[in-house]
Sequence to fold (230 residues):
Amino acid sequence: QVQLEESGGGVVQPGRSLRLSCVASGFTFSYYGINWVRQAPGKGLEWVALISYDGTNESYADSVKGRFTISRDNSKNTLSLQMNSLRTEDTAVYYCAKETERWLSLPGYFDYWGQGTLVTVSS
Amino acid sequence: DIQMTQSPSSLSASVGDSVTIICRASQYISSYLNWYQQRPGKAPKLLIYTTSVLQSGVPSRFSGSGSGTDFTLTISSLRREDFATYYCQQNYRTPITFGQGTRLAIK
Fold:
């Protein structure tokens, strides 16, 4: 069955960096775009970034552009999110979410999500 | 950016009732509108995509409609497991944006 498992969350001071990972299984990873979506405590969903199935296209929310970088390794079925210059407002549960349609380089909708990893930015 | 506004932000209903949640886009998004359900402490679950297409395994009491800027999610014959928070999401263009959520509580 399709599984997405995030890791790498934790407590980090403002201005520091953190790298999240998402390991996928149960589907052909290289066929699908993957997104990061976050949810601050008690708040709604916020899309963070998208990478196309082949890694050639990336897109970011304005709130993280220039600070976060999404990447993928299709040989290892792994997605990453490098987060630099972290701010207190980046505190959230971060989910990786799989696109539903294959081979899309456009934004889509998400049929499978991981359980999330909590990032807390605090001094 | 395309702003998505849901109404109401919260509502209460009883088991067996029908409810409708509205999602309005700040600009034209054709039919690129999707709905998710999120239970407390869980990841969101895709219910409906492209305005009205039911995701596999989702009960037929869920339905969606609309086009352009105005969309609705209707849940008929509410069951206890339907009490959750619902989000709309547009994928017309990036940045992908979600509505602020509608919390459906049991009366």
Observations:
- Chain B has a mean pLDDT of 97.
